[in-house]
Specification:
This protein has about 260 residues and is α/β, with parallel strands linked by helices. The chain is built from 7 helices and 4 strands; from the N terminus they run αααβαβαβαβα. Helix 1 runs antiparallel to helix 2 and helix 6 packs across helix 7.
């Protein structure tokens, strides 16, 4: 396009030295002048458009490179922080709640433990059955109970759980299989809740009086913890259902307190 403009300008210069053309040739000269102005304008626009369009591309490329470098730094720092966090977690001792420590100590008054409850202690192993109205859920009282249960397991206690009600699977927190893993119950299957009678330790749900009586007749547990709720009035609570069965069916020499 610049070569064409040069040719037009040379032609215009050549015509400037010539005598004025006849009147009928003047429109052609005017047209040639207009074409020259338009050609110069086109060259100007092309040059400025290249400057305008190339600058954002270069700026965008620089910004993308800076963002990629920043993301790499953040990723490295996050990986390092996660590694340190895992190391710190692995190095941190399990802090047992005072309630769990006092409870286990009451079962074994001659056992020793360190100060502040930051130890498993040298507690003998007890077989504990916890009777609760429902499968553990995400509500506050169940979260606190789960912490208490984890402390008991940490303190060398064997824990089984018996639930009075049938809780839908989607509402269980933690899920039954995960809860069984926390309690170190091997080979747990969902149908063990309500079918047959798994030998303790286990997770159980109330089905019939006879099934719970069979569980008590084993004489397996040396401690039964029953929670008393009044929320189901006028229906009987779990404590009202199971305590008479514990006393009636557990062997006389293996009556759990």
């Amino acid at each position: 396009m610049e070569a064409a403009a040069s040719q037009v300008m040379e032609a215009a210069a050549a015509t400037a030295d010539r005598p004025l053309p006849p009147r009928r040739a003047r429109p052609a000269i005017c047209l040639l002048s207009v074409m020259l102005v338009l050609l110069q304008g086109a060259l100007y626009l092309q040059h400025n458009t290249w400057l305008i369009s190339s600058a954002p591309r270069e700026a965008a490329a620089a910004a993308a490179a800076a963002a990629a470098a920043a993301a790499a730094v953040v990723a490295r720092e996050a990986t390092a922080a996660a590694t340190v966090g895992r190391w710190q977690y692995n190095q941190t001792e399990h802090v047992v709640s005072p309630e769990a420590l006092a409870f286990v100590a009451s079962l074994n008054p001659n056992a020793s433990s360190k100060d502040c409850g930051q130890t498993t202690g040298d507690f003998p192993r007890n077989r504990i059955l916890i009777v609760h109205e429902q499968h553990l859920q995400s509500m506050g009282c169940d979260v606190r109970l789960l912490r208490f249960i984890k402390d008991l397991v940490y303190l060398n206690q064997e824990v089984s759980m018996f639930f009075r009600g049938n809780t839908p699977s989607k509402m269980r927190q933690p899920k039954s299989k995960q809860l069984a893993s926390i309690l170190h119950i091997a080979d747990f299957e969902e149908d063990q809740f309500r079918k047959g009678l798994r030998y303790p330790p286990g997770l159980y749900e109330w089905t019939t009086t006879q099934r719970f009586a069979q569980l008590m007749a084993l004489g397996y547990f040396n401690m039964v913890v029953v929670f008393l709720w009044f929320w189901y009035d006028p229906q009987p609570s779990a404590a009202e259902l199971v305590l008479p069965l514990v006393r009636a069916h557990a062997p006389a020499d293996k009556q759990a307190p």
